[in-house]
Structure formats: structure tokens, C-alpha cells
């Protein structure tokens, strides 16, 4: 449900899946399943691997699609001796409008710290794009009752130094780690409580901006559970992993009200 001032956003995080040839087909198939009315209600975003960005950009521009393009990661430096990394300007030049920052897989598998994630946030805004800041607790943290402490500190560190205007444009994805790729979804009520908590943490910096900040839920989102999540006040959309790889399923998630 979200709010009138916040447009719903359904984002597909393809993670390390699909060659650029697969990606072209996936975006084309997705576009055949969506129409003008869908894009009016929902901003639709796909985040393929770096190697597919140029191909997907070309499909979107050639076919005049309303699908937005996002990246899964960025290095916060402008340029330089950072072998294997990709800069914000390189992404912006490919018409990338969103960048996923601080996904739990990057925090856990690649040791990304809150401080490094904050640098990325700054660099994404500076390049004219919008970051999707990912936060979420582990199963152990949830069980011991420290989920809010963990998520609160991730949000505070991630948004440090951002202007009120940037906070209003920001997207935060609450993704409990125990729900990612497991088929276990947070209940809609629990997800809403945590997304509301995320908004209150942004509100501690600017209550006015926090009403515009979009907060997504992620973690085993699928066509069967999205409607219940979207009915909640503080959930403005979803960050979808596995179900975004199948155009039929992803289109059903986008058209959650049908
Ligand atoms: P799943 O939808 O596969 O659980 O992945 C969620 C996720 O990590 C999206 O960023």
C-alpha cells in the first residue's frame, strides 16, 4: 500500500545469473507481459550483472521500454588502480538509475563494512543515481531479539552524511538474511514492523524526508506472497531474487493486485 507520495518499486536482483544473451531475452519477455497501466502503478527495475548492462540498456532504449536499469554493486572511487572494479560514472553512462548497495551477500561474502557502504551511498548520489541500501539481521540476531539493533545501526551508518533531499530519494531494502533464498518469508506483519522501524531510523535524520523514502521488503518474495506484503503501510515494494529470473513470475509479482 505504501503512501501516495511514494511510488511502489518492484526490483529484480538477478545476482550472478544470466549471460548477456539470456538477459536480452529475459527483459524482452518481461516487457511483453507488462503494459502501460502496470508502469503507472509500479516502477519496474531489473538489476542484471555488469556484463549485461549494456545489452539491457540497448533493449530498453530501442524498444522504448519503461523498465528501469539497475546495478548490483559499485566501487565508490571515481577511477584508478582498482583492478576488477566498476565506478559510479561507468554505470551512470549506461543509463543505470539505481545501484544496490550493501547487499547481505556482499557484507557476508566480501567483507563489506558499514563505512565502505556509506562511501558507496555518497558516490552513487554524486553520480546522479539512486542507491538501494540493503539491511537485515541474521536468524541468530532475530532469535536473540537484537534484529532492531542490527538493522538500526546498518541504516544509521549507511545514510550518515546524506542531505534531506537525498534521504527523500533513497530506497532502503529490508532483507532478513534468514529469508533470502530459503523460501522462508517474514510474515507481512513482521516485515511491515521492520520496514516501519527502518523508516523511523531515516526519520531520526529527517522526519519529512522519511515520508518519501521508499522501503522495500526482500527475502523469498514470490507471486503468492507479494499482495499481502504490498497491503502494508510501510512496505513500498519488493527486492526480488529468485522469482525475478523467470519473466512470468516476475511479471506476476509486479502485477501483485491481479
Ligand atoms: P530471494 O528472493 O531469492 O530470496 O533473494 C532475495 C534477495 O536477496 C534480493 O536481493
CATH fold name? TIM Barrel
Question: What's the multimeric state?
Answer: single chain
Query: Which secondary-structure class do the elements indicate?
Result: alpha/beta
Q: What is the distance, rounded to the nearest whole angstrom, between the alpha carbons of the first and last residues? A: 14 Å
In the residues, how many domains can be counted?
A: 1
Spans of at least 5 consecutive residues whose pLDDT stays below 50 are: none
Mean pLDDT: 97
Compute the number of helices: 13
Enumerate the distinct ligands: 1,3-dihydroxyacetonephosphate
Proportion in β-strands: 15-25%
Order of helices and strands: EHHEHEHEHHEHHHEHHEHEH
**Largest sheet data:** 8 strands, parallel, barrel
Total count of strands? 8
Work out the helicity level. 40-55%
Which class in CATH terms? Alpha Beta
Second rung of CATH, namely the architecture: Alpha-Beta Barrel
- CATH homologous superfamily title: Aldolase class I
Strand line-up in the sheet with most strands:
1-2-3-4-5-6-7-8
As a whole number of angstroms, the C-alpha radius of gyration is 17 Å
Principal-axis shape: globular
Amino acid at each position: 500500500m505504501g503512501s501516495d507520495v511514494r511510488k511502489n518499486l518492484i526490483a529484480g536482483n538477478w545476482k550472478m545469473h544470466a549471460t548477456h544473451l539470456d538477459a536480452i531475452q529475459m527483459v524482452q519477455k518481461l516487457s511483453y507481459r507488462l503494459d502501460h497501466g502496470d508502469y503507472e502503478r509500479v516502477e519496474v527495475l531489473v538489476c542484471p550483472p555488469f556484463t549485461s548492462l549494456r545489452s539491457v540498456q540497448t533493449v530498453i532504449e530501442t524498444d522504448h521500454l519503461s523498465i528501469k536499469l539497475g546495478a548490483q554493486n559499485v566501487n565508490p572511487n571515481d577511477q584508478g588502480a582498482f583492478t576488477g572494479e566498476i565506478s559510479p560514472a561507468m554505470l551512470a553512462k549506461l543509463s543505470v538509475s539505481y545501484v544496490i548497495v550493501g547487499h547481505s551477500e556482499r557484507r557476508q561474502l566480501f567483507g563489506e563494512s558499514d563505512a565502505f557502504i556509506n562511501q558507496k551511498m555518497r558516490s552513487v548520489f554524486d553520480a546522479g543515481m539512486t542507491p538501494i541500501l540493503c539491511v537485515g539481521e541474521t536468524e541468530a540476531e532475530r532469535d536473540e531479539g537484537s534484529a532492531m539493533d542490527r538493522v538500526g545501526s546498518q541504516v544509521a551508518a549507511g545514510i550518515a552524511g546524506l542531505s534531506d533531499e537525498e534521504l527523500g530519494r533513497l530506497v532502503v531494502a529490508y532483507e532478513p538474511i534468514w529469508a533470502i533464498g530459503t523460501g522462508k518469508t517474514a510474515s507481512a506483519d513482521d516485515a511491515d514492523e521492520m520496514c516501519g522501524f527502518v523508516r523511523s531510523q531515516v526519520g531520526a535524520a529527517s522526519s519529512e524526508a522519511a515520508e518519501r523514502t521508499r522501503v522495500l521488503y526482500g527475502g523469498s518474495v514470490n507471486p503468492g506472497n507479494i499482495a499481502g506484503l504490498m497491503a502494508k503501510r510501510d512496505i513500498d515494494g519488493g527486492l526480488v531474487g529468485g522469482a525475478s529470473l523467470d519473466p512470468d513470475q516476475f511479471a506476476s509479482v509486479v502485477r501483485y493486485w491481479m
